[in-house]
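Methods: holo model generation. Sequences were used as deposited, without trimming of termini or removal of tags, and paired with ligand SMILES retrieved from the corresponding compound records. Each pair was processed once, and we did not select among multiple samples. The sequence and S-adenosylmethionine SMILES for this entry were:
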Amino acid sequence: MKKNLHHPAESSDEISVSESLAWAKKFQFGDASLWSLEIELLLGEVIGVSRESLYAWPNRVVKSAQWALFADCVKRLNAGEPLEYVIGFCEFWSLKFKVNSSVLIPRPDTELLVGAALALPVPTHEQIEVLDLGTGSGVVGLSLAYEKPSWQISAVDNSPAALEVAADNARALGLNNVRLLEGDWYKNLPLPIESNDGYRIILANPPYLTKEDAHLSGSSLSWEPIRALVSENNGFADLYRIIRIAKKLLNLEGWLLLEHGYNQRVGVENFLLESGFVDVKCLRDVAGNARVSVARHTKFI
Ligand SMILES: C[S@@+](CC[C@H](N)C(=O)[O-])C[C@H]1O[C@@H](n2cnc3c(N)ncnc32)[C@H](O)[C@@H]1O
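and the model returned the structure below.
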């Protein structure tokens, strides 16, 4: 249930941390412990202190400008907007990434894709070419660029607004081994910078939900860009498109890595095998769901 928000200390300029939290906690609907966590993270962010120090110094004064910002943010959370959009950033691969409503909020599951790319049997200190398709905020490609300064990362999205966010993130992380490209998957994609041998790794977390997916309504997904989430053909259209063209762009020892839905493993695996990929394997998330398929390109097929 949503409630009206009023300043708890209308007559006074001064309100403490504990009063602010007590005020905001009254607006909780749904999961009380999640709401408390979000409110605490939010207040800590607004006044620039850690969540722990809110409790260590409960009498700290929240200045009026901070209060106004906090109250506005509580209002947005109360309307159901995800915390990451309200505070404007999230953590992924232990790095801080800017996010806004133009990009998908990165999910912890997607770290599986990054970990899988880093575990591939490819040279770690050589300049290899990597292509991140559907980069969004850039989390996948930029995390790899951060971990492997010698790798050259090309990151593609068809959303100019998403690419602006990715560019801000690349700047904030001080990365100079990333190029951001606007395009429809592989269309207009230039060849790798250093050679025309193709990419050594192509990886993607493409849209893979169906329009009818129950998760799309009544959850934080309804705040996220639909173009980042939904694909035709039972959610397989973009996955299949990427697999079909990947063979033409991959290096002869190249690898393709795809995040997909927990129930899409068989469809993705069959299409990879039909398309001539080998060594196809699937990685599971912490809950045991099949979420990332890895496959090797080969010249013999
Ligand atoms: C599921 S999101 C993944 C975002 C980010 N890589 C992540 O893991 O958080 C899919 C991304 O693909 C992009 N996208 C959708 N269709 C595309 C297309 N035809 N060409 C290029 N990018 C596309 C969306 O804009 C979105 O940023």
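The longest strand covers residues 250-259.
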